[in-house]
Amino acid sequence: MKVLSVFVAVMTALLFMPVTAHAEDITVSADSAVVINADTLGVLYGKNESKRRAMASTTKIMTALLTLEAGDLDTPFVADSMAIRVEGTSMGLREGDTVTRRALCIGMLLPSGNDAANAAAVNVAGSIPAFAELMNRRAAEIGMRDTHFVTPSGLDADGHCTTAYDMALLTAEALKNPDFRAICSQKAMTAEYGAPPQTRTLYNSNKLLKMYDGCIGVKTGFTDSARRCLVSAAERDGCTIIAVTLNAPDDWNDHMKLLDYGFERVKPFNVRLDTFSAEVVGGEAETVTLAPPENVTIGFTAGERKNVSVRYDVPEFVYADIEKGETLGHADIYLNDRLLRRVPLTAFEAVPRVRPKQGPFGWMIRLFTGGAVNIGGI
C-alpha cells in the first residue's frame, strides 16, 4: 500500500492557555533537585541535577519496571531463600514463602522491601549481578548517562549512583507502564504471599499521596550514605510533572514546592488532529474517512508549544473490506525532532467489499476476485 507522508505544523491548532511564569527560583533543602515535564522531558527547574549521588531505594523504580516488563506477573513461585536475607526495610518474606512478581512489585514500591527487590532480581535474571546488568542496559536505553546500578534494592554499594535528572528520565519511562503507575499511586494494597500464601495489606511510605493534590507516586528512599531521597509525580488536567530530590532533609516540603513550580509553567494543550479521506478499491463506497479516535491533550510550556508539529502517514488508497475503527494510518506529534506521541487514524465508517452477482459463472467470478469457492457445491 502506497503511503503519503504529510507534514503539518500545528501552532495554530493548539488551544493555548497562558502560563503565569515567575522569574525567581525556589529554595529547596535538597543537595540535588530537578523538575521535568513528563510529556516532553523538558527541564523546568534544576539544582545540581547532573551531580552523581547515591539514590537509596529510589533504585527500586528500575527494579520494579524490569520485573513488570518481564511479564508472567501472577505465576506463583518460591522466593529465593538467600535473596531475602537482606538488611533494611522489608515486606516480610520468610524462607519458603510463595510469591508472585506482582506481589514483589507491590512489596518494593509501597513498603520499600529490600527482600522484595532481591527476590525479584533473582527470579527475573537468575542472580543479583545478572539483574544489575539488565538494570544498566535498560538505563542506557532510557538515556541515563550518569547512572550505574549495583544493587536492586538501593542499599549502599561502591559505584551505585545516579543523578536527579537521570532519575526523572527513569520515572517518565516507568510511568508509561500501566502496572507500575497503578501500583506506585496506591496508599495501600493487598498482596498474597507466604507459606501457605495469605492476603496481606501493605502500606505506602510516600506521604505525598495524602499531602499533595494529584500525586500519583512515586518512591521514597533513605540510606546513611544517600540520606533522604524522593521521587514524586503528580497529574492535573492531563499534565504530569515529575520531581526528584537527592539528599533533601525537608523533602516533603521541597516536593510540594517543586510540583507547584512545574504546574505553574506546564499547561494542557489540545492538539487538534486532522481527518483525511482515502480512496477505497473494491468497496461499496468510493472513499473512507480516516480520523483520530479523539483529540490529544499534552502538557507544554509556553516556549515548547512554538516547536510542536504533527506529521501524518495516510494511505492514498485502501482495499475493502474495512471495519469501522480499523487503523489505516497514524499521526505523529513532535516537539522539534523528537516524537512525543503516535496517534492512530482509524476508519470512521465500515466499507464492505462489493459482492459479485451470482449467476451461471458466479464461481469463476469469486475465484478471480478472491472470494471463497465451494467446488463440491457446483
Please characterize this protein's 3D structure.
The chain is of the alpha+beta class and 378 residues long. It has a domain at 47-232: Beta-lactamase, CATH 3.40.710. Helices cover 25% and strands 30% of the residues. The protein is built from ten helices and 18 strands. The strands form five sheets. Strands 1-15-17-18-13-12-16 form a seven-stranded mixed beta sheet, with no helix packed on it. It has a five-stranded antiparallel beta sheet with strand order 3-2-10-9-8, sandwiched between helices. The chain has a two-stranded antiparallel ribbon with strand order 4-5. α2 (101-109) packs antiparallel against α3 (114-125) and α3 crosses α4. The protein is globular, with a radius of gyration of 26 Å. Residues 1-23 and 371-378 have low confidence and may be disordered.
Observed structural traits:
single chain, 378 residues, alpha+beta, Beta-lactamase, seven-stranded mixed β-sheet, five-stranded antiparallel β-sheet, 18 strands, 25% helix, 30% strand, globular, disordered N terminus
The coarse silhouette is: globular
Total strand count, please? 18
Return residue spans where pLDDT drops below 50 for at least 5 consecutive residues. 1-23, 371-378
Output the helix-strand order.
EEEHEEHHHHHEEHEEEHEEEEHEEEEH
Query: How much β-strand is present in the residues?
Result: 25-35%
Report the radius of gyration as a whole number of Å. Answer: 26 Å
**What is the fold-level CATH name, i.e. the topology of one domain?**
Beta-lactamase
The CATH architecture name of one domain reads 3-Layer(aba) Sandwich
Per CATH, the class of one domain reads Alpha Beta
